[in-house]
Write a structure and sequence with these properties.
Length: 454
């Protein structure tokens, strides 16, 4: 029994030694979730998700390089298959988020493409002790709603070290490797023995925003036809942005509803570091302690009403920080955190002259040639939000065909436009075998075989 215990401890330690020590962090600017990355180079690592063997591998450099970590994962079931292809990780991340459509939580969300994320196994609440026993035991099985579930420490590594633009290959053509699967399964500790990864960092800041137009739908998701509308928002409604991207954001409303809103219907300044001001104020006389115990030495006295500097929350009931240059631990019971939020002002945003409430739309809005160019809300056809315009066309429709533009990267998505041979195309990005592009002011997806690059 002792040998088994020692072996288990060594196994767990070997897993965590694969993870680099947290070093200087950096937050990316623009419409990206405000994560303090340990690495901001998208070429430093690459990720492969093996749908055949249900294995996730992180490589140093390109696919096939030195293996940084490798573990069993869970991908989509037969009804919600995880699509194969080569992708660049998206901008949307969330430290510990709630699935609006499914009613569970997960840690360390990293967007792969559209509504597909790499994240931890599920939790029933934000308590680490609520990790789903069933989800943990089903690692290695294809039973998710399309996302890629992994062990929490694997999700944590990807979250902090694989920024937007990192290559992620989802492969369904790997040869079956039962021996590797067997070995990786043995490396996963029993549920009761798994140690949650430590993380004393502050959560990424939430970004204050306001809704620009009446009739804006708050959705359960942004990439599935089964996504539904949670609520209909009005011009001037205040929200906090939890996940940020140039096309969609995950938001929390003033009354606590969660969902997704198109970024073009939001007014926010994501790089305004002073939009949310946090203060830590003593509500009565208290102290800076040498350790997380009231029996330890009192290093400094904090008067009633004075403000302290807090750097982290290392343990329930305790802050770590300083007062007048003296560092130590302060009790959260007496040093109270408060936030003052400064929301953007809608002075320069004009409400469309006519508006249809699209709350019943099943999967997003079409923008056609631009953002409300006709003075009304767009139709309910599902199309992605336009990306920033490119300086000039970099491709054209191939000879001898009429190419269909679709609202998503696949033949199952509706056709939203058709273009004849030779039509100029501005390719914005490649999603698997489909180009997301702009043609004559319209944005959508065209199959790569229909486009000739200039």
């Amino acid at each position: 029994m002792l040998k088994r215990t020692v072996a288990l401890i060594l196994c767990i330690l070997s897993v965590f030694t694969l993870l680099p020590a947290f070093s200087s962090a950096q937050t990316l600017s623009g419409w990206t979730s405000k994560v303090d990355y340990d690495n901001t180079d998208p070429n430093k690592y690459s990720i492969e998700i093996d749908l055949v063997n249900q294995i996730i591998t992180v490589y140093e450099g390109q696919i096939g390089g030195r293996i940084v970590l490798q573990s069993l994962c869970t991908t989509g079931d037969a009804e919600h298959q995880t699509g194969a292809g080569t992708f660049k990780l998206g901008d949307m991340k969330e430290r510990f988020g709630y699935f609006v459509a499914f009613g569970q939580y997960a840690q360390y969300w990293t967007q792969v493409v559209r509504g597909i994320y790499i994240h931890s196994v599920m939790y029933n609440s934000k308590k680490l002790t609520s990790m789903s026993r069933g989800a943990y035991r089903k690692l290695g099985q294809a039973v998710s709603h399309g996302c890629v579930r992994v062990l929490p420490h694997v999700a944590q590594f990807i979250y902090y070290n694989c920024p937007p633009g990192t290559t992620c290959v989802i492969n369904r053509k790997k040869a079956a490797d039962p021996e590797l699967v067997k070995r990786l399964k043995k490396e996963i500790p029993a549920y009761a023995d798994y140690k949650q990864p430590e993380d004393n960092r502050a959560y990424p800041p939430e970004i204050p925003a306001v809704i620009k137009y009446d009739g804006t739908p708050l959705r359960t998701g942004f990439s599935r036809t089964k996504d539904t509308t949670v609520a209909t928002l009005s011009r001037g409604d205040k929200v906090m942005l939890l996940q940020l991207a140039a096309d969609w954001c995950k938001v929390r409303t003033a009354d606590g509803k969660l969902g997704y809103v198109k970024t073009e219907y939001i007014l926010a300044y994501p790089d305004n570091a002073n939009a949310v001001k946090t203060a830590y104020t003593a509500k009565s006389k208290t102290y800076v302690y040498k350790s997380m115990s009231t029996d330890s030495a009192k290093l400094a006295t904090i008067p009633d009403g004075a403000q302290a500097n807090v750097e982290s929350n290392p343990k329930k009931g305790w802050w770590y920080g300083s007062y007048n240059g003296t560092y130590g631990y302060m009790r959260t019971r007496y040093v109270i955190k408060s936030e003052t939020v400064e929301y953007p002002v809608l002075e320069d945003v004009t409400q469309p002259s006519t508006g249809a409430n699209n709350s019943g739309a099943s999967s997003g809005w079409s923008t056609g040639g631009g953002m409300f160019n006709n003075g009304s809300f767009p139709s309910a056809t599902p199309t992605p939000t336009p990306a920033p315009a490119q300086s000039s066309a970099n491709a054209s429709i191939a000879a001898g065909i009429i190419a269909n533009m679709r609202s998503g990267a696949g033949k199952d998505f509706p056709v939203i436009g058709s273009f004849s041979q030779g039509t100029d195309v501005t390719v914005i990005r490649l999603d698997g075998t489909w180009y997301y592009c702009q043609v004559n002011g319209q944005y959508g997806y065209i199959y790569s075989g229909c486009i000739v690059m200039k």
